[in-house]
Amino acid sequence: MAAPEEASEAASEDGFIRLDGVEKVFDVRRKTGFMRRETREVRAVDGISFSVRRGEMVGYIGPNGAGKSTTIKMLTGILTPSGGRLRVAGLDPARERTRLARHIGVVFGQRTTLWWDLPLIDSYRLMHRMYRIPDARFKENLERCVELLDLGELLSVPVRQLSLGQRMRGDIAAALLHDPEVLYLDEPTIGLDVVSKAKVRGFLRELNATVGTTVLLTTHDLTDIEQLCRRVMVIDHGRLMYDGGLAGLHEVGESERTLVVDLEREHPPIELESARTVRVDGPRQWLMFPATASAAPLVARIADQYPLVDLSVREPDIEAVIARMYTERRVGEGG
Ligand SMILES: Nc1ncnc2c1ncn2[C@@H]1O[C@H](COP(=O)(O)OP(=O)(O)OP(=O)(O)O)[C@@H](O)[C@H]1O
Question: Which of 29, 66, 155, 211 is most buried, with most CB under 10 Å away?
């Protein structure tokens, strides 16, 4: 795929996507009685600042209603921010939406940009004309997507006859035919089976590594994040709660690792200061200890004091870590 051009040159590599105190407030009117209405403000995005370097692949996660889609809609120019400053490839998305369209690709997992009744290839041909993609480049990009997303046999099939996984792969290809430098993915693996998820993830990894496309990925499937993103941003109630590596998330979430030990025989629960035994099943016991601590001293003590036969260490479940972050925040806010 081709090199980035024009406006993107104006964007610094560090702040290819840049948000400074961005806000989005919706006025929601609701009926409170006969002939009575009340207007309520919903702060969907409440002063978010971050920047994404060119070529980064970043996870953007949070619970339902956190403000993820609203952020992405502002980044595409569909929604105008109520406050703050926002730039993508050096452009103001809301004001320069048409120019920006050439630099970004968007995939909304729950919707399709493809023409429902047309064969897949016809949607692509329409995009070829809409985006005025040079013929050679269109051909090259299409061939690449067809090969890597395994679309060959699907090109002649009307979109409505495609399975969800096939349609999603079709949508991802559609978002990339015009060589966007930035790809926003909103739930790209939602509802897909294991094989389709693996195909989509493999493709995104390859795209990011070889073409250097900047990717902002919103998902509820944390395996997407674990397999694709070094950096993750967590948003809740329209505010950024965390921005950093996955490992750091474990620290912030005070997560725990699990040590599973097999003893020679059944034994009362192991008692140690540095870990808590949470389950006993015959000769097998499960102990939790802080994810930031080393397992070695713990293992040494157990081996010393108990008839140890075998052991394994399980990494913390990122899902649990994040769930904990959300709940802690809620509890904090309530108090
Ligand atoms: N057009 C709108 N009018 C009024 N309120 C809206 C509008 N769009 C979003 N909201 C509200 O803004 C908040 C953030 O919504 P948003 O869709 O950005 O969340 P999300 O993080 O994408 O959630 P989900 O994971 O469920 O898709 C919610 O409270 C939502 O009800």
Answer: 66
Cα–ligand 1 centroid distance for 256 (angstroms): 32
Mutate to test the pocket of ligand 1, among 43, 48, 69, 108 (most ligand atoms within 8 A of CB): 69
pLDDT along the chain (335 residues), means of 10: 46 80 93 81 95 95 89 94 95 94 90 91 94 93 91 94 91 93 91 86 91 91 87 92 82 78 94 92 93 87 93 78 66 39
- Mutual angle of helices 164-176 and 194-210, in 10-degree steps: 10
**Residue 24 alpha carbon, nearest atom of ligand 1:** 12
CATH superfamily of 7-250: P-loop containing nucleotide triphosphate hydrolases (3.40.50.300)
Atom of ligand 1 nearest to the CA of 62: 21
Contacts of 272 (CB under 8 A, 6+ apart): 287, 298, 301, 302
**Nearest residue (CA) to ligand 1, atom 10:** 44
Distances (CA, A) of 115 to 63, 82, 130: 31, 33, 13
Give the strand pairing for 57-61 and 83-88.
unpaired
What is the distance in A from the centroid of ligand 1 to the CA of 67?
Answer: 6
Parallel, antiparallel, or unpaired for β 104-108 and 239-245? unpaired
Say which DSSP state 269 is in: P
How far apart are the CA of 72 and the centre of ligand 1, in A?
11
Q: What confidence score (pLDDT) does residue 36 get?
A: 81
Q: What is the ipTM of this complex?
A: 0.96
Residue ranges of domains in the chain: 7-250, 256-315
How buried is 194 (Cβ within 10 angstroms: 0-12 exposed, 13-18 middle, 19+ buried)?
exposed
pTM of the model: 0.78
C-alpha span between 259 and 299 (Å, rounded): 9
